[in-house]
Amino acid sequence: MDMAADSAAQEELRLDGEQDQAQLLGDSSETLEYAEAELYGAEPPLGATATGRSFPLDVARKRWLWKLTIGLVLIVGYAGYYVCRSNLSVASPSLIKDLDLSKSTFGIVLTAGTAAYAVGKFVTGPVIDSMGGRKVFLLAMLCSILLTVVFTFGSAVWYFTLVWIGNRLVQAAGWPAVVKITSSWYHPSESGKAMGFISLSFLFGDAIARFYLAGVLEATDDSWVAVFWVSAITLGAIGVLCFFLLKGSPADVGLPLEDEKHTAKQSTADDIDETDGRIQVVGTESQPGSWKERIGPLLRNPRFWLLCFMSFGLTLLRSTFTDWANVYLTDETHASPSEAALGSCLLVGWLNDKLSRGRRGLMLMGFLTVLAITLGAYSLLSSRSLPLALVFVTLVGFTLTGPYTLPAGALSLSIGGPMCATVSALVDTTGYIGGLLSGYLVGLLAETYGWSTVWGLLAVVTVATIFVTAAFSLLDYRHSLPESLPHINSSSDEYELQETGVDQDDGELTFHLAEDKAK
């Protein structure tokens, strides 16, 4: 009798232990199927997830459809932001001519707007992490629409400067909000792919906005007022779409979280272990009380600072071209404002979807080296035709746009975790401090010394950015070494998932099958 009771008690303890283990690791068979699929490049089973948690097939299909919907809406929504941001650049030749402005005076408007954008990035990141991405994304969009309309009522430089400051200030919340929403919908194992997909919004958004608004400029006899009104109406229509289809998290549509245990124990920046540039997130129950406590360890991480310096150089380069391409083409080639706008859309129309994989730093260095040679060579030419100028901006677009997408996108996600909006905002803030130089200073240099001097100086900036990227490449390589990766041990027919670390290259978990020597 006692032996039977002991046996029953032992069996009960065994079942309890198995239940606890299942709750801790999720469905191990599903985890294994997902891991093996990832390892061999196949598609995982529909019900399996990267975390080991499985869902009924109908729920899995619903999650997949919503993830696809959210990704598409974010692309359209953030591309819409560019309609009310690129409008000033498209309309700039017409605006300068109508109001008889000098390049340096117009540069003041651009510089003030860039400064506001940098301040807005710094302020809105922590706000988005607290309030959520959807609310801030929609509110900033509404404010940008209203300020775009208000811009058309002015005729003085001081008025345009103040309104443009307001517009850029609210638009600064757009991308950190996108990053926050993405982190809520996509597991870290998917974030790299998701950000590459969503980055289409600003890779093609600016180009499409310029092409679209250039058509408006052509149809309205170069009326900059019409360009701003059409911008506001267009973004308003996109805003309605986002209001109904954009959801902040799976819970908003009645879906379970992919990894509730992970979500409940999301680590903060205070849980970041930094060793030789590697970032390992360690989940804890405690949450530091102040923003300073959470951000401190991040500020001590060298990869974060290298991202900031990279963003500084890349944003200076990109802002110069996006803000001044139309004016340059009009000055140098005597093209009309509308023709110049159509030509400059080539600047941001290229995408290299391989850039975020493998040796990202080395890929960046390759692109930037070509960019430096292009800028340096073009600055030495004595005469430039419109076709040659268009080839120039096309090559700049190919070599610059891809690298620009990474620092505040997938790389910020891989470092930031639950503070991804803050990290993205800080990286972007540093970038737009560099962007400040692209306004008044570039206008003054072009007016005083000519465009050749501008291109030569930008070649120097590119070379400096290459050296920063080389340092990042070294740390990125060390961060991707196998000893920091999670792996699956195997012994006979038994498998055990051991999370010994996270390979955050592209934000994707990588699993390795190996024999379990302990067994």
UniProtKB/TrEMBL annotation:
Membrane topology reported for the UniProt record: Multi-pass membrane protein
Transmembrane segments: 64-84, 104-124, 136-160, 194-213, 225-246, 362-381, 387-406, 418-442, 454-475
Signal peptide: none
Recorded superkingdom: Eukaryota
Localization per record: Endomembrane system
GO function terms (MF aspect): glucose 6-phosphate:phosphate antiporter activity
Protein name listed in UniProt: Transporter, major facilitator subfamily protein
Natural source organism: Acanthamoeba castellanii (strain ATCC 30010 / Neff)
